[in-house]
Design goal:
seven-stranded mixed beta sheet, alpha/beta, binds pyridoxal-5'-phosphate, 482 residues, 11 strands, globular, 14 helices, 44% helix, four-stranded antiparallel beta sheet
């Protein structure tokens, strides 16, 4: 493909994507394929001779699309949203075109500098305390990680290094191995499973702190496990709080937890992967109260702030905590400016070396929506969640299982878990809408998450009618069996 063909095909590809998104409602939200469907449809090995673009594009419709789950369909209510917007898609094309690898300032100055400024913009948009911002000479600052899982891992590893140094400074006879064997990280019993996986990778024990009746970790619950573990000779070093849990969008009590962590030399990381985007609206910022005692904070603009995957924003109060833990200076990576103190070399803030120019998509989205546009978007989704909640509440065969605070509604039929499993199965078998379940304590329930950028009241009404029709059938069959 030469440049003139790229021009032509590029325009066609934009049309293909625009058509896809414009008509996405007409596609079945969840595919019909079985595992292994794809291999028989394509050759066993790559073609020897070059093929034509038209043929590839034809195969996209024939081979790929039948196996796609359409996350941006307004009938998709599963998991949490993943962001998509036209400005972000275009910025990603530009990022691919520039194609730089921004591991150091010198490896592409604009890539580093725009990222630092965008994280400051975003931090100000959600009213993050100024210690987390880079400004011109701040000690804190932000970085784009690929995912929330990585942000938690980076925080956990930096906290581990800090804890080892602290303990060794108090007791020089202890080896690193002695200390790591006694380190414990904590998180909520409702935390995302990635936190536990991060503990496995970091080689530290991880304990789940029990939550209260609102599925929130309270200070008293953390205090209790810390006291027990310290008495047993363990070294608590890390706590990952969750704002907006994946199961039911509950919020840990940062105001109670932060002071305990600060006093006990425990790094407090705050995972707000989904809920963080809502803090662009002043009316939801009460949920962030207590953030001033955190060491690091993370949320995913790629979930709910219209910036396509991947874009996970992470801030630290002390950038030196990361750079001390991860700094490696190979000769081929050194550059003239790195000793000046003004320079950010983002490779020290993350696990990989390479990084894409991801801040472009934030810049495009923030400018084309404006803070007001982003606020409107969040508010619309929250409103739709309450509309669905009201529908559930009007039908007394159903119950709401957790407070609806943002865009997630947890609900179930009053009755057994088996009944609700059957309801979910009939919904996902019909494939008119798509949902996923969760287990909240002993209850199996259905999660209805407002996801698509284009979802409207009509889709919510349709979804509820459809769910109640399936529930009617199910309850009728059950009634006949009894
Ligand atoms: C979605 C989610 C994650 C995982 O996000 P990734 O960016 O895919 O790693 C972590 N924590 C919470 C609370 C989430 O909702």
């Amino acid at each position: 493909m030469d440049v003139s063909e790229f021009r032509k095909r590029g325009k066609e590809m934009v049309d293909y994507v625009a058509d896809y998104l414009e008509k996405i409602e007409t596609r079945q939200v969840y595919p019909d394929v079985e595992p292994g469907y794809l291999r028989p449809l394509i050759p066993d090995s790559a073609p020897e001779e070059p093929e034509r673009f038209e043929d590839i594009l034809k195969d996209v419709e024939k081979i790929i699309m039948p196996g796609v789950t359409h996350w941006h369909s307004p009938y998709f209510f599963a998991y949490f949203p993943t962001a998509s917007s036209f400005p972000a898609l275009l910025a990603d094309l530009l990022s691919g075109g520039i194609g730089c690898i921004g591991f150091s300032w010198a490896s592409s100055p604009a890539c580093t500098e725009l990222e630092t400024v965008m994280l400051d913009w975003l931090g100000k948009m959600i009213n993050l305390p100024p210690q987390f911002l880079a400004g011109k000479d701040g000690e804190g600052g932000g970085v784009i990680q690929g995912t929330a899982s990585e942000a938690t891992l980076v925080a956990m590893l930096a906290a581990r290094t800090k804890a080892i140094q602290r303990v060794q400074s108090e007791n020089r006879t202890l080896t690193q191995g002695d200390i790591i064997g006694r380190l414990v990280a904590y998180t909520s019993d409702q935390a995302h499973c990635s936190v536990e996986k991060d503990g496995l990778i970091a080689g530290v024990k991880i304990k789940h702190v029990p939550t209260d009746e609102k599925f929130a970790v309270r200070g008293s619950a953390l205090r209790k496990v810390l006291d027990e573990d310290k008495a047993a000779g363990l070294i608590p070093f890390f706590f990952c709080a969750t704002l907006g849990t994946t199961t039911c969008c509950s919020f840990d009590k940062l105001q109670e937890l932060g002071p305990i962590c600060n006093k006990e030399n425990i790094w407090m990381h705050v995972d707000a992967a989904y809920a963080g985007s809502s803090f662009v609206c002043p009316e939801f910022r009460y949920l962030l109260s207590g953030i001033e005692s955190a060491d690091s904070f993370n949320f995913n603009p790629h979930k709910w702030l219209l910036v396509n995957f991947d874009c996970s924003a992470m801030w630290v109060k002390k950038r030196s905590d990361l750079t001390c833990a991860f700094k490696m200076d190979a000769v081929y990576l050194k550059h003239d400016h790195q000793e000046s103190g003004l320079i950010t070399d983002y490779r020290h803030w993350q696990i990989p070396l390479g990084r894409r120019f991801r801040s472009l998509k934030m810049w495009f989205v923030f400018r084309m929506y404006g803070v007001k546009g982003l606020q409107e978007y969040i508010r619309k989704h929250v409103k739709l969640a309450h509309e669905f909640e009201d529908l559930v509440l009007q039908d007394d065969r159903f119950e709401i299982c957790a407070d609806v605070i943002l865009g997630l509604v947890c609900f179930r039929l009053k009755g057994t878990n088996e009944l609700n499993e059957a309801l979910l199965k009939s919904i996902n078998d019909a494939k008119k809408i798509h949902l996923v379940p969760c287990q909240l304590r002993e209850k199996f329930l259905l999660r209805f998450a407002i996801c698509a950028r284009t979802v409207e009241s009509a889709h919510i009404q349709f979804a509820w009618e459809h769910i109640t029709e399936l529930a009617n059938k199910l309850l009728k069959v059950q009634g006949q069996q009894q």
